[in-house]
Amino acid sequence: MEDLNELTDLFLQCKTCYEYFVFDVFEQAYFAERGLHQPKRCKNCRNGANSGDSNENESKQTTVTCASCGVETTVPFKPRKAVFCKLCYTQGRDVSTEE
Ligand SMILES: [Zn+2]
Ligand SMILES: [Zn+2]
Predict the structure, then answer these.
(1) pLDDT of the residue at 14
(2) CA distance 12 to 86
(3) For residues 83 and 95, is the Cβ–Cβ distance under 8 A?
(4) Measured in angstroms, how far is the CA atom of residue 67 from the centroid of ligand 2?
(5) Domain residue spans of the chain
(6) How confident is the model over 62-77, as pLDDT tens digits?
(7) Looking at the CA of 70, which ligand is closest?
């Protein structure tokens, strides 16, 4: 069992901005209580100043079927009209692509 008195403040280096920040005994207790790992980023970065490692882009991928060859592909947007896979798209540039 860990006792608060046995803990000491830790200095950790932020993985995002490389600044050192204090991971104090109260935070350590808080994290331990919730079974969390040591923070990898400083408070600034954790507070959303830098959300570079989110998977938002992935969740926005939409699976579509190529209008030409019928193969399934994913695009990072919601298509409003016929979508071609990469292959057909690059091969079929002469397809009428009028807006
Ligand atoms: Zn940071
Ligand atoms: Zn295709």
Answers:
(1) 94
(2) 44
(3) no
(4) 7
(5) 4-49, 57-91
(6) 888 999 999 998 888 8
(7) 2
